[in-house]
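Troubleshooting: if your tokenizer reports a length mismatch, compare your output against this known-good record of 225 residues.
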Amino acid sequence: MKRKPLAIAAALILIGSFATPASAHVSALPGVSSAGNITDALTVGKNNTLFFRVGHGCGLEADIKHPVTKKTIAKAGVDTFGTHAFSLTVPVEALGAAGTTAPRPAFIPGFRTSLVKNADGTMTLTWKAISRDFDIPNGPDGDVATTSFFDFGVRVAFAPSASGKKVTFPAKQRCLVDVAAVKRTASTKARGATTISVYETWDGSTTDEVKDNNSRSTAPSVTVF
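Known-good structure output:
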């Protein structure tokens, strides 16, 4: 009769130890198993399904000027941009006992996925919109100021050595700023329309003093059981 309360208590402890702090822009969330629990997501030897929630689009650390006209086309602290791509680096501790079990990305309509093995043994998984029409907007249209969120799902395989440890997943969000075409004049050459990439990066940085439109912060992490 005591098993159900104990299971509930364990689940509550799990949520508290699992979730990335609320102030973080990317949160790590456990997936629900076919049996209806969230403990499998963090248990070695189970199906470890995780979701990384992106809370909004990209902002700017510094104004962006048109490369030809030098006029400001996007203002820091004012303009925001939709998510065009999201990358997640899966550490060796989440690639199985031998470090060779590839992560399995969730399929997202309108996005193409790619997987690259890095020199340090980690693997980087990227979701990229196949066109700008599929960019995830910063928020809904209308006169109410709010933001949109999106969950990127992945199934990993925690190694036995990860049990009892915090495992970190560096992540990067890429957004695009449109740059209008410029016609040829007496003093300038013609230039076609293009885009400028801006980023939100969660690589474990605790400070970000360089205003380069690649803001950095702590990386999402989970505690494995």
